[in-house]
Amino acid sequence: MNRTARVTVGALATLALTGVGTGAQADTAPRYGMPHHHARVEQDGSTHVLRALGRLDRRLDHATRASRLDPLTDADRAALRTNVASDEAVVEAVATAYSLDPTSGHLAAATGVLRAFHPRRYVGATNILRHGERTASAIAALEPLVTPGSTDERDLATAAGLLAGVSADAFGATTPRATMRAARHAVARARGLVGQVRDDLGTP
After folding, report:
1. Of 42, 173, 158, which is closest to residue 120 (Cα–Cα)?
2. In this structure, are residues 122 and 84 in contact, taking their beta carbons and an 8 Å threshold?
């Protein structure tokens, strides 16, 4: 963890030593036939972009810290850790590429990651999964109490099906909002069905 933060610090030191991001470097001839004003924008923006990538890495780390993931099942916790490791690797890769060669292509890749990656998706995913796991435990406890073939049994089966469609593997920093909403809605519907069964059975 924090690999990108280390890369960013090293990259910033390299940029400072080589003059990238300084006025002197910005006044040099453009590389690869690039218009002079484009080269200036890229070089002047180097440290800003790398620091932003470092902050993104730290936010990913914070959103998936152990205390936040501990309430989840081992499988869900492992899935989120795998996904955040993949996200961090992408951040590290674009930071490294841009620090070594701050061209327009690497700048576009870096800014694309900064726009597309949302660490808060992991916070939302943790909450969804936690509620889903509690609902699954309630379903398991209620199943022996319902009458076979009854509406209550069907409601529990429906609730279980809704939860089965919510997988920790699907959550990451780039998960679309629509996917997050659908998962949240599925868990809410499952909880509502479980609540109805509890009311029917008179159980707390």
Report:
1. 173
2. yes
- Please list the alpha-helical segments (H only) found in 27-150: 36-44, 46-63, 66-69, 74-100, 104-116, 120-142
Angle at 94 between CA 19 and CA 32, to 5 degrees: 55
How far apart CA 144 and CA 141 sit, in angstroms, is 7
Residue with tokens 């040099």: 28
For residues 11 and 99, the answer to whether their CB atoms sit within 8 Å is yes
The angle subtended at Cα 96 by Cα 91 and Cα 100, nearest 5°, is 150
Q: What percentage of the chain carries pLDDT values higher than 90?
A: 74
DSSP classification of residue 203: -
> Residue 129: what residue type?
L
Rounded Cα–Cα distance for residues 153 and 142 (Å):
9
* Interacting residues of 15 by C-beta distance below 8 A, sequence separation 6+: 21, 46, 47, 50, 99, 102
Helices (H) and strands (E) counted in the chain, each on its own, are 10, 0
The predicted-structure confidence for 60-87, as pLDDT tens digits, reads as follows 999 999 999 999 999 999 999 999 999 9
What is the per-residue pLDDT across 104-141, written as a single tens digit (0 to 9) for each? 999 999 999 999 999 999 999 999 999 999 999 999 99
The single-letter code of the amino acid at 192 is G
